[in-house]
Amino acid sequence: MKTTIKAVSAALVLAVSPQVFAQKGETVKIAMFLPLSGTFAGIGQNYLRSWQFVANHMSGEKNPAGVKFEIVGFDNKGSPQDTLNAFRAALDQGFRYVMQANGSGAAIALSEAVARHNERNPGREVLNVNSDAQDPSLTNDKCSFWYYRLDPDTSMKMEALTDFMKDHAKVQSVYLINQDYAHGHQVSAYFKEAIGKKRPDLKVVGDDLHPIAQVKDFAPYVQKIRQSGADAIVTGSWGTDLTLLVKAINDAGLKLPLYTYYANVTGTPTALATSEDAQVYLVTYAHPYHSGELGTLISSFKKTFNDDYYNVASYTGTLLLGEAIAKAKSTDPVKVAAALEGLTVKTFSGEVTMRKTDHQLQQPMFITKWQKVDSKHAYSVENTGYTFVPIKEIDAATASASTSCQMKRPSGIN
């Protein structure tokens, strides 16, 4: 069940003894759990490749700890149970840091398993850094000292998205369509709550939840959207579900603005490009037009893999881990976890901070718009001739969310 992909890579799971101190040239191993087979394999493979690529770029003298990184990918098939199986396999192989991507259900299962393991095995603790599960509970009622999230949660993204939508006077009615699991339910609930405060005149005329990764033809859903008279569609769906929804919308000739969380993820841009006048907006924490080091990485990734680098959490995560290991002067997960709390680093969008109270990264966000490439915006997403152009930035304070987390820290850590 293990897919081993060696590369001098980014920062998140160690196969070192508890008392080893970070030294120049030391190798830090990272266990990453994500879908490498099945419906969402394309996304998982992109994520893994992204972390490897960035970590290779930022290893050694390019991080303040002077460490090298190696990522080992474990196929969790996107399921909580397979994630737990992968976690046990990683423990058996001596990993001390773990990372998970894709799916809040898997993220919750892993966070709980890590907490249980650490309580029962003092001296063999594991640190868990999450790439992109967005269930707000992970940094609220289910928060854990051992869990750190790099991606904005569902409520933060919705705050940013509705802050943008509130000024769209032509949108008087919205149809919600989401996957039938925690994330989809939360997108629906947070949209109604946020837009109710900002645009109480706007009506929700439909609210569908569909089985995740099971619907092959979204035409019946698109027909319901048409019949509702909606002015726009809001969706937090991702992967093949969003790709097939876009295909059905285009096939039906439905011309409505689409407000999304994941329109840039593998497969969906190619589907969007089949309609010349698609109106699509994306809430995100990065875009293809950042300058500096990230801009260079985006361009280099494209040239190397003929693929898009959109899992930019790998860049931020690598920065944070390198700084934390240097600050802790150790690769001991307990010391590195403590060093991560409240840590601020300067990244492509300015300063970002790992909030100590709940371990949710605080960062700016952007709204990008789908359009044809032009002389000023030449990056072609999935080689479609289209691109996502930033049209609004939402500062970290505006996009932030309060937390109910009551953090329980290990003895000796304040």
How would you characterize this protein structure?
This protein is α/β, with parallel strands linked by helices and 414 residues long. The protein folds into two domains: 2-151 and 290-362, Response regulator (Rossmann fold, 3-Layer(aba) Sandwich); 155-284 and 364-399, Response regulator (Rossmann fold), CATH 3.40.50. Helices cover 35% and strands 20% of the residues. It has helices at residues 41-57, 80-92, 104-120, 154-165, 182-198, 219-228, 240-251, 268-272, 292-305, 313-328, 333-340, 396-399; strands at residues 2-3, 27-34, 68-75, 97-100, 127-130, 147-149, 173-179, 203-210, 232-235, 258-260, 280-284, 344-347, 350-354, 361-362, 365-372, 386-394. The strands form three sheets. It has a seven-stranded mixed sheet, sandwiched between helices. A six-stranded mixed sheet has the order 1-3-2-4-5-6, sandwiched between helices. Helix 2 (80-92) packs parallel to helix 3 and helix 4 (154-165) runs parallel beside helix 5. The longest helix has 17 residues, at 41-57. The protein starts with a strand and ends in a 15-residue tail after the last helix. The relative contact order is 0.14. Mean pLDDT is 92; it is low at 4-22.
